[in-house]
Amino acid sequence: MRKIFLMVLVLLSVLTVISFSQNVSISFFQESLSQALSDLAAQENITILTDSSVGGFITLNLNDVPLSEALDLMLLPGGYSWKEIKPNVYFVGTANPSSNSFLYLASMSSYHLQYVKASTILNLLPAVMKPYVFTSTDSPYLVLIGAPEDVKENILSTIKKIDVPKKEALFQVNVVEVDESYLRKLGMDLQWSNSSSATEETLNILKMAINLVYKGNGMSILSNIRSQASNGQAKILASPKIRIVSGNNGKVDVSTTRNYSYTNSSGKLVVSSVKVGVSISLTPTISSSGDVFVNMSETVNGALENSGPVPDTMSNTLSTVFDTQIGKTVAVGGVDFSTYEKATSKVPLLGDIPIIGYFFSQEKMRKVKKEIIVFITCESVGDKR
Hints:
Blueprint: H1 2-21, E1 23-32, H2 33-44, E2 47-50, E3 57-66, H3 67-75, E4 81-86, E5 89-93, H4 102-105, E6 107-112, H5 118-124, E7 133-135, E8 142-147, H6 149-162, E9 167-179, H7 180-186, E10 211-216, H8 218-226, E11 234-238, E12 241-245, E13 250-263, E14 269-286, E15 292-304, E16 312-324, E17 329-346, E18 361-383
Parallel strand pairs: 2-5
Antiparallel strand pairs: 1-3, 4-5, 6-8, 7-8, 9-11, 9-12, 9-18, 10-17, 13-14, 14-15, 15-16, 17-18
């Protein structure tokens, strides 16, 4: 008796597998979707229920395909979903959260984000997916997905492509102040050629307030400029390092003050200060291959000579985009301005004699022209720490 019972169970299991694995062959030509579903239900001896939103016409030829694939293909043009709510009973409708059918067609799953907040995910998801994704008040890194299984898989796949570690870049920024005469000696007013362009773009940092001027072996130029720091022809104003996450903004602000003295109408000596400096904003975008695209904004405060004793102030802003790689340096012209430095002139030989030499030398203020140059070097690229 026990053997007979086991044989009956095995036979029922085999019949069930056969019934579920049975494929569908059916054709429709300009037939309403509701009627086509009724024809399929009658042929396969199943029940298909539809909500009031189901409509439209289909032309389709199905040849030996599984029932699940047949339903997918029939419902695809109208964006409808289906679900087996009981054995051999199927429900077809619109799986929109605002529809009453949503509760029958969709299921809810949670996903814990690792790198991106839920609010960011909602902003980046395609509009068609957003109605199915919900945020949690308990955690900014938790999202809830309520949708039919096939839609849920697509949404989850998209979320995983967004929820990846952010890249960051480490930049070395060198801001230097150099005598214009020394720049001319270096040839820094040479052309900068844009090799990707059919026409050559020429820039001259000695004549333009701000511009991208040199791209390539900028560190050798910086090394030459550093060597002049001892004789006063160059000054390192700042040399900060800044780590910026891809898509975020980093800022460097370097300013100097220039003092100008003059005698006013009352005969009193007055000293007036003018702020001269560079404010740099960098927003890098880092590709998967490690290339770095930098959106840079530079604001320059400078001094313009006039007929009076104190120059006018000026402020220029430039926005530009350039690409770079690890180890590459981009030089950016800052601002040129005039200032006064103490210079000593003396009679040869006599002026070098201790104590007595004082009477054979003379100190005076010498007018010199300066240039501020910014060197930006991308030192490393990696995942956010």
